[in-house]
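F.,

This is the one I mentioned.
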């Protein structure tokens, strides 16, 4: 079975929480109307982060992709249950 070290979990969770804090902190510090350019750059950044995440999973093997698919399924179900 796949073994993920505590360090990897801590790094992954830390990265996600850090990105969320950066995004929310930036929005709270400079409240303004977001223009098209800024929205596009933010979208490109987050899409790039997702692509890098996927490339790392592919580089580390298919077993991690299976785990990612399962985690993604659980996350989707949580979003459906807790949605608006």
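My design for it:
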């Amino acid at each position: 079975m796949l073994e993920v070290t505590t360090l990897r979990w801590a790094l992954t969770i830390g990265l996600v929480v850090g990105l969320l804090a950066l995004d929310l902190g930036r929005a709270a510090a400079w409240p303004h109307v977001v223009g098209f350019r800024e929205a596009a750059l933010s979208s490109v950044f987050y899409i790039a982060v997702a692509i890098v995440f996927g490339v790392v999973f592919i580089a580390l093997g298919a077993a991690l992709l299976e785990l990612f698919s399962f985690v993604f399924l659980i996350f989707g179900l949580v979003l459906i249950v807790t949605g608006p």
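The helical segments are 6-29, 36-60, 62-82.

Talk soon.
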